[in-house]
Amino acid sequence: MKKLARNYNYYIGITLMMFITVSFAPKNLQSTAFISEERASVDSNFNTVNWNDFTKTEALSKTNKKKILVSLYTDWCGWCKKMDKETFTDKRIIASVNNDFYPIKFNAEQKGTVLFMEREFKYMAQYKTHEIAIALTGGELSYPSTIILDENFEFIDRIPGYVSADAMADILEFYGKDIYKTTKWDVYKKSKLTKN
C-alpha cells in the first residue's frame, strides 16, 4: 500500500511540474504549443487522402472550386495496389492532394450507376468496364490511371500507369499550382532538375 501511495504521489508531482512549466513558460513557447496542438487537429485530415465519389465532389465544388484528381483502379491491378501503398500514403502527396484537389478513387470495373454532371454513367458489359472510366481516359484504358480535371470538370491530363511519390509530387505541383497554364511539362521538369 505504501508503494502505491508513493507512485501516486510521484505521478501527482510530475503532473504538477508539467502544469507549472507550461503555465509559466514564456508567451512565445505557449503560443507555439497552442499552434502545434491546433495544427495537429487540422493535420489529422492529412493522415490519408480524403477520397470522395463523383456525386460528393460535384456537390463540394459548388461552394469551393478545386481541381479534381481521379485515381482509376481495378481490384486485380497489382500496380494500383502498389500506388495506394507507396504513393498515396506519402505525407507530401496526402497534403497536396487534400489541399489542392478533390480526390476521387474509382473502380473502373464497378457495376453501379454513377450520376455525374446530370448524366447517368453505367457499367458497360461489352467492355467489362464502367462508362465513366472510358469517358475519362478517352477509351485508352490502363490501370492505374490518374486523371486531372479542372475546377469545371474539364479534362486537363491523363497519366497512365504507376506513378512514384516523387513523380506524383511534381505532377501535383505542376497542375495544383497552375504552373501548367504558363509552362510546358518538359520545361518545368528541366527547371526542377537544375534546382537540385
How are the SSEs ordered, and which strands pair?
Layout: H1 2-23, H2 27-43, H3 54-63, E1 67-73, H4 78-86, H5 91-100, E2 101-107, E3 114-116, E4 119-121, E5 123-124, E6 129-130, H6 131-137, E7 145-149, E8 155-160, H7 165-176, H8 185-195
Parallel strand pairs: 1-2
Antiparallel strand pairs: 1-7, 3-4, 5-6, 7-8
Structure description:
The protein has 196 residues and is an alpha+beta fold. 50% of the residues lie in helices and 18% in strands. The protein is built from eight helices and eight strands, in the order H-H-H-E-H-H-E-E-E-E-E-H-E-E-H-H. The protein has helices at 2-23, 27-43, 54-63, 78-86, 91-100, 131-137, 165-176, 185-195, and strands at 67-73, 101-107, 114-116, 119-121, 123-124, 129-130, 145-149, 155-160. The strands form three sheets. It has a four-stranded mixed β-sheet with strand order 2-1-7-8. The protein has a two-stranded antiparallel ribbon with strand order 3-4. Strands 5-6 form a two-stranded antiparallel ribbon. It is globular and about 50 Å long. The model is unreliable at 1-44 (pLDDT under 50).
What is the chains' assembly state? single chain
Helix content: 40-55%
| Strand ordering within the main sheet | 2-1-7-8
Morphology: globular
| Helical run tally | 8
What is the average of the pLDDT values?
Answer: 81
Q: Helix and strand string, N-terminal first?
A: HHHEHHEEEEEHEEHH
Summarize the structure.
With 196 residues, this protein is α+β, with helices and mostly antiparallel strands.
